[in-house]
Design goal:
Layout: E1 3-6, H1 10-25, E2 30-32, E3 39-43, H2 47-57, E4 67-68, H3 84-93, E5 98-103, E6 118-122, H4 127-136, E7 139-143, H5 155-162, E8 168-171, E9 182-185, E10 192-195, H6 201-208, E11 213-214
Parallel strand pairs: 1-8, 2-8, 4-6, 5-9, 10-11
Antiparallel strand pairs: 2-3, 3-7, 4-7, 5-6, 9-10
Helix pairs in contact: 1-4
């Protein structure tokens, strides 16, 4: 049985965040608000929980799960190195709607799907998400919808699609315009945009000082 917590009320928000943190630590799934759309999340280092997340979405390992972090400093332990281009983008757009793909640290024992040695990272601009992430650490988070269906802009829409596969729903009201994050790949030297979204290409180009184009 799922439980929904109204995060617009301080007491319910505190209870919901505590329940969500306990659920994540126990290997369960939670739905949380972000600054783009609602996400379904699990402990990034619990392979069984990540597998359950993919199953809840009806999604295969060929579409690996991104990782959300609660602070810039968390990034250092997750990637092989943080190049100058990544630092510039982080300073300009984090927290916010930009996801950055980098080579993962080889020592990490996680299984996010068929990542080919990379990890897709983002720091969301949402107080509820940030509070949960700072409590439990990096989370594997994907849009809170069944594969092929529209991303959820409310906790209710997420619950309609995911039901009891998720233990805790943190309801912080509508997410606003349901625009996904922009994904930029920095693993090949030249920046490549894998998905256009919340951050325009022109703004990426301005920060990096080079013309950034979509991946072919």
């Amino acid at each position: 049985m799922s439980t929904v917590y109204d995060c617009s009320r301080p007491e319910s928000r505190a209870s919901g965040l505590s329940a969500a943190a306990n659920t994540v630590r126990a290997g369960g799934l939670v739905v949380l608000p972000t600054d783009t759309v609602y996400g379904i999340g699990a402990d990034a280092f619990d392979s069984n929980a990540v597998a359950a997340l993919l199953a809840a979405k009806g999604r295969g390992r060929d579409m690996p799960v991104p990782v959300l972090v609660g602070s810039w400093s968390t990034l250092e332990g997750l990637v092989m190195s943080v190049p100058r281009s990544a630092r510039a983008l982080i300073e300009a757009f984090w927290p916010g709607g930009l996801s950055i793909v980098l080579p993962q640290a080889p020592s990490l024992s996680w299984d996010l799907g068929n990542t080919r040695g990379t990890v897709n990272l983002r720091m969301p601009l949402h107080p509820v998400a940030l509070e949960l992430l700072r409590e439990v650490g990096p989370m594997a988070v994907s849009s809170a919808n069944r594969s092929g269906l529209p991303a959820a802009a409310t906790a209710g829409e997420a619950e309609e699609q995911l039901g009891d596969s998720v233990s805790i729903y943190l309801d912080a009201g509508p997410s606003g315009e349901p625009v996904a994050s922009t994904i930029v790949d920095l693993t090949q030297g030249q920046p490549r945009v894998l998905r256009e979204g919340a951050v325009p290409l022109a703004e990426l180009s301005e920060v990096l000082g080079v013309e950034v184009e979509p991946a072919s």
